[in-house]
What does this fold into?
Amino acid sequence: MTAATRADIAAGGSGFRSARRRVSAALFRRGWLRATLLLSPPGAWFVLIYLAALAILFVSAFWTVDAFTGNVVHSWTLENFKTIVTSPTYRTIAARTIGIAAAVTVTDALLAIPFAYFAARLAPRRLQTILFVIVLVPLWTSYLVRVYSWRLILAQNGILNWTLDKIGLGSVNIAYSNWAMWIVFSYLWLPFMILPVWVAFERVPGSLLEASADLGARGATTFRRVLLPLVLPGVVAGSIFTFSLTLGDFITPTLVGGAGSDFIGNVVYSNVGIANNVPFAAAFATIPLLVMGVYLLLARRMGAFEAL
Amino acid sequence: MRNDTRNLLLVGALTLCMAGVVACGGGNSSSNANLPTSVGRGEGQLNVIAWEGYTQPEWVRPFEQATGCQVHPKYAGSSDEMVTLMRQGGGSQYDLVSASGDASLRLIKGGDVQPVNVALIPGWKNFIPQLKSPPHNTVDGKHYGVSLQWGPNTLLYNTRSVTPAPTSWSAIYSPQYKGKVTVPDNPIQIADAALYLSATRPELGIRDPYELTESQLNAAVALLKSQRPLIKKYWSLASDEIDLFKNGDAVVGASWPYQTITLQDSGAPVKDMIPKEGATGWADTWMLSAHAQHPNCAYKWMAWVSTPRVQAQQAISFGETPANTLACPYMDRIEAGACAKYHANAPASYFDSIRFWRTPTKDCGNGSQDCTDYTTWQQKWTEMKG
Amino acid sequence: MEGTTRLSRVVLAVWCALIVLFLLFPIALIVLYAFNSSNVQSWPLPGLSTKWFSSTFSNAEMRSALWLSVRAALIATTIAIVLGSMAAFAVHRFRFFGRETVSFLLVLPLALPGIITGMALNSFFSWGGVALSLTTIVIGHATFCIVTVYNNALARLRRTQTSLVEASMDLGADGWQTFRHVTLPMVATALVAGGLLAFALSFDEVIVTTFTAGAQNTLPLWIFGNIRLGQQLPQVNVVVLMVIVVTIVPVTLAQRLTRDTGVLRPTAGAR
It folds into this structure.
């Protein structure tokens, strides 16, 4: 007898319970109905709220704003896109943003991989717990205040120069510069990179490493040819966050950036403020959208989504 | 018969005229009729957009205790931000905004603020004459807010690193302090550059730093572009500049007195001054949102900050000059010599010497319309910064 | 450990220690400067004082901002748990058109820069005439929190045996009873872990909140306001210190719960 039949048989008894059983049996038989019921609320939320909002935003990229009244003119034009592509300023800003985002991603990957390897495979149990908490605590500490602390470290009379001075290495002048932003971004998103890579290292079966050793490979070779390809999806998963979080940020450039440190996010933010020029802001925001769209498609190819 | 027809026509014409008057002019009179004649009970809450330092606990706490209106400030560092915040969410989020002269007209034109009845503000009648109905907040005889305080944009410098004391704005334009200069991240800075050029390059013919023709604007932007390599950071938060000076990243820059006072209080060796070329400045107005949710609390606040005592407190706290002429003795009581220090009893010529922030428009003031407007200024500023 | 030499283990341990230092140093600074005697942040520390603790706790603005943040995070997390688990169940059990794109779609709010999400929602709300309030803040937060619960739930579901569900039904339980007594206990810890991460994301979020909050201040917005002002900075440090202290417990809890979803597997100890 199938489960459905049993459920039917058992569906005698008190009113509510029998109604419940009948509904349950009906649902059991119609899988598509259950799927629809399960998917509708999240689906509706996403389509009706998030995707609709995105669609409206990017449609407005094709409109302009009347300079005098500040009202949006609903006539289709590629004016905004033309400005972005032809003006050297916006090209520089976009290049700077993408460049620093890439640098931050590479930095974080390099920092995270050895750490995650040690934590996942070499550390004893108690240490693992402690390391996990240490990696998560920054995520619970206010992002703004962490960035603000870095101002103190990198300032001219700050901790970094004070330390360098004490050990006789002179001083550096990296406060409020692209270097400062690179350091701070790498710091901020490091936990986001460590976690998926840690998980990826965790998942590698020890038998594979044993087999590699049995076949004569030394540690470095095993690492390079067995472990690294297996944890690559985890690295790519982490890089999604480091890349996109850097790409869209405007607060860190405001707090630790210097004279020539404007990001795409800053231009977008100030344009939302300038006479509510949302069309231009939306047009400029298509750049990170396109970049991330391509990045996500590539990441999915590499299996990063299973490693998230 | 002809008389009847003529009478009918007359009556009809008169009716039409009255209808026309009611329809067109009626708009004005009805909004005047909408002005409250008394302030009712407080609604318990007040949401304001304010410059950093305009809502210090010193005068906010007594207000909250006396009226029951809890003040929720949202800080903004530029007029652009204030305009955006005011318009956010249909304009009903905030009740009051302490707008400077370069935001006030934008807000009035955009319909974001409503007229206020200055008869309900007791301190108003003691304001200096220039701030009772200034053009930046009074349009067609309607007051779109209450003047608050005014002050200059100053030259801030580190007394140990910048010797002898500077006398000119050239301190922030010459390579002498390269890499240690800071100026506000605000397109209105173009006016400061124009002001400097009006003294150093009179051949450009700049008379009003807010009315710049294309060529004058380009000259100002060129000056700013040559200044860019000297800049450590364009500050957008008041605390940016405080940190820059405190931690040695900047030694000279354009500033507000608020930063000077905060830095001096924390022991930093800084001073500020107004250079010989003059200074731009701001004259602030508390403006009432057109869709204010807590108008009674708003009126109570406007009345409160116009009283001589609060005017004195705020003037000394921020380093600006009160609009209320009766504030002077209170200032001296809080801090000896403050009245003179902050020019509260200065002659009208001092007020006239400051080039107050104004939104640049195409109107050149002399009949021609080929001056550059604010949108152009913003684009040039973004391009300059890169 | 096979294949690793003593030297490489030492090097890795040192590297790990340096990273730990890197991660914790700024946080140690934050804690230290909560005791700053001056209100301006500079090095070296001008002096120590505990005067900011009392003024912070009596700061009504801070308390209302903190309470608003907690409320927003709780509601957003609840919505995320409900919607995220529903999506996970659907994707796990059924094959339907567009199954692959669901994961892609759900990760978009996190993967796309916050400023785009914020701007889009802001325009959407003003276009729809919705006033900015706690509701809009929650909508913004829930949208990007759903994926954290979804991922955790899906990962757990992939590890569970569907035969258990069938066995339960064979024994006479209807769908609801099976869900309550068999499925739910299996995924409960994954949901809680995902929920904790969602709470953290929502609690500290600042970019999307800038666009979806009206005159209200969540804690990050209050912190930003204080950073702007620059006059009562140590109050911010005090608040952050309290938050760290209070959240050490849930974080450790989350670690214990995710122990068997993959971060720390039981087999990891057996070498």
